[in-house]
Amino acid sequence: MLFIALTFCAGPAAAAADAYRGITLLVAPExxxxxxxxxxxxxxxxxxxxxxxxxxxxxxxxRLIDRLKEVGTVVIVYDPQHAESTLTENRLAxxxxxxxxxxxxxxxxxxxxxxxxxxxxxxxxxxxxxxxxHEIVGHGTQxxxxxxxxxxxxxxxxxxxxxxxxxxxxxxxxxxxxxVIQFRRSLEHLYCLPFRQWMAKRRHAQATxxxxxxxxxLELATAFRDYIDTVLGKPLPTSPDR
Length: 242
Fold this sequence. Notes:
five-stranded mixed beta sheet
């Protein structure tokens, strides 16, 4: 899910906890007091494990993360208090364009921040890896090419979820798992509905790709690029990977 914020938190700045694979890992202030079940050291270890899965088994997504690191600072924050009052998917994680910590935000022209809440830490490492891909690769790449704020919520989520699904396929997550079936239902009938309608009119053959048991999300993500260029009216900067 997406939340374009000017600051990470209104209270004390988060303290640096770790750095791994060129990614800054932070823990929200007083996280150890706020969550007695998943303490910060365990959360950081789980994030590291999820990043290892991405880099070992999902090469395109790893490459796109590295592309972000070439132009900006990639940050993952564990905040057990994040969105605890909501019951939506946004309670799991969200993307931000700043941390609110000057020392980090001024390092590079761009900052790519994934905030991970307590609930996502109860998921398996491969599910967590998909969430990280969604926020960092999906929304982070949208931010990198300058179209994040220009896209509708549905389009932002559609593209990010295609990369998330691709990562789960790379990691061998069963396509008939309950959470994958629920994920695909919202992908196909909510977030990617405008994209599907566009393909039905302009690329009918590709539109049927959503109907397959194992869809090809990266092929659909490539078609999405043409779709969003059409929606926004002009092509935006691209990369060898996109």
